[in-house]
Amino acid sequence: MHSTWFGVLGETGFLGLIAFMVMTLTIFFSAKRTTDVVMQKREIYHRLYAVSLKGSTPV
What we know:
- The chain is mainly α and about 60 residues long.
- The protein is about 90% helix and about 0% strand.
């Protein structure tokens, strides 16, 4: 069984594992905060969706 957590621990030690956990939690909470803001302001969601669709279409 392969585990990213044990791989990070084995290669970087406890200090690296702690840094990896902090980065992972920071990304998670940032994504959660962004999702909450978008859900509170639906008009922003629709505007961003339209812009992303426009940007993803080939010319």
